[in-house]
């Protein structure tokens, strides 16, 4: 190798993939250190396009829309890290990524409060029928103030909130509920420490008790194959007819067809949904329900938090490409110091 070639290869910028649109300043910073293949058109890449791009790069910034599995990694000979811009990583086949010797990271913590705020907003909107009321007014149905003939909701204050999934976001929701004087019960794979239960004012119950006792049931658990349809017709049948169901977790945790039937039959009072099976498609029967508040997966959607998520994903990617341990590495066994 001559000197010129050596210099060129030494100074070569690592090539990375930015699989979705990110903030222009973040992209500009990346371009200073990396050769960037970026998808600023923001159209989700086809599996073929993703596989091809992953075959060309050393690092990739991806989101929940990109499925990273053995097929996606088929040509990824130089890939060191897939950095998810998301705390949930059910789009990752972690065993396949690990088997390929590739690091996987996510973005915990930076979105906890924003997502807990949103969970509470969705709960309030659902219980107090805010979007339904707005449609009612816009449709010219508000003829006069009435004690009974306008949309009447359910109270939050001094009611029982049931939280399924008591990780960071679940605990954030519990702490907000305390401010409303709510009775907080929860169910989780593992019980919280006594200190954490105290900080959240939360009482551990079985899943069945949670379903039976909650006036408002909030789902915050991660999606796994075992959690598929955790809430379906049999679970909804245990809930109070006056209860609300809030899903800010992941599509697939709720059986959306069963939920639509239950909402239409008045088996529960209302639902607030930020995530859907097969999103961005929403089950057509859900769209027919008036007792539902729908949002387009915006739990972490404030500009400040989305910037923080992108920044943390970039930090993970940079660390991996510099031979350092990414701060939020998922498959720690892959990292070799
Ligand atoms: C997350 O971070 O998991 C959000 O739901 C965005 O996918």
TrEMBL record:
Q: Which Gene Ontology terms of cellular component type are present?
A: cytosol
Q: Which SUPFAM superfamilies match?
A: Formate/glycerate dehydrogenase catalytic domain-like (SSF52283), NAD(P)-binding Rossmann-fold domains (SSF51735)
Does the keyword field hold Oxidoreductase? yes
Alphabetically ordered keywords of this record? Oxidoreductase
Superkingdom of this protein's organism: Bacteria
- Quick one: signal sequence residues? none
Which part of the chain is the D-isomer specific 2-hydroxyacid dehydrogenase catalytic domain? 16-331
InterPro entries assigned to the protein according to its UniProt record, in alphabetical order: D-isomer_2-hydroxyacid_DH (IPR050223), D-isomer_2_OHA_DH_cat_dom (IPR006139), D-isomer_DH_CS1 (IPR029752), D-isomer_DH_NAD-bd (IPR006140), NAD(P)-bd_dom_sf (IPR036291)
Oxidoreductase is among the record's keywords: yes
Q: What is this protein called?
A: D-glycerate dehydrogenase
């Amino acid at each position: 190798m001559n000197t010129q070639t050596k210099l060129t290869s030494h100074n070569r910028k690592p090539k990375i993939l930015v699989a979705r649109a990110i903030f222009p300043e973040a992209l500009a910073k990346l371009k200073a250190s990396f050769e960037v293949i970026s998808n600023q058109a923001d159209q989700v890449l086809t599996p073929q396009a993703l596989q091809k791009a992953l075959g060309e790069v050393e690092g990739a910034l991806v989101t929940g829309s990109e499925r990273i599995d053995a097929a996606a990694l088929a040509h990824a000979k130089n890939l060191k890290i897939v950095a998810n811009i998301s705390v949930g990583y059910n789009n990752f086949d972690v065993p396949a990524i690990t088997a390929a010797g590739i690091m996987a990271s996510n973005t915990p913590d930076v979105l906890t409060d924003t997502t807990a705020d949103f969970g509470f907003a969705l709960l309030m909107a659902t219980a107090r029928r805010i979007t339904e009321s707005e449609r009612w007014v816009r449709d010219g149905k508000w003829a006069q103030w009435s004690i009974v003939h306008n949309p009447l909701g359910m109270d939050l204050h001094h009611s029982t909130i049931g939280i399924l999934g008591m990780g960071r976001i679940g605990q954030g929701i519990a702490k907000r509920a305390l401010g409303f004087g709510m009775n907080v019960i929860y169910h989780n794979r593992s019980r919280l420490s006594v200190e954490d239960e105290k900080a959240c004012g939360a009482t551990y119950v079985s899943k069945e008790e949670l379903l039976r006792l909650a006036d408002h049931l909030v789902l915050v658990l991660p999606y796994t194959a075992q959690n598929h349809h955790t809430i379906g017709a049999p679970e909804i049948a245990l809930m109070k007819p006056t209860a609300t169901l809030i899903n800010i977790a992941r599509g697939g945790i709720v059986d959306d067809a069963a939920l639509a039937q239950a909402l239409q039959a008045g088996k529960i009072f209302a639902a607030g949904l930020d995530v859907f099976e097969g999103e961005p498609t929403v089950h057509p029967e859900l769209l027919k329900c008036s007792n539902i508040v729908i949002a387009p997966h915006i739990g972490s959607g404030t500009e400040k938090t989305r910037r923080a998520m992108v920044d943390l994903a970039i930090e993970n990617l940079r660390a991996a490409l510099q031979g350092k341990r990414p701060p939020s590495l998922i498959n720690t066994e892959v990292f070799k110091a």
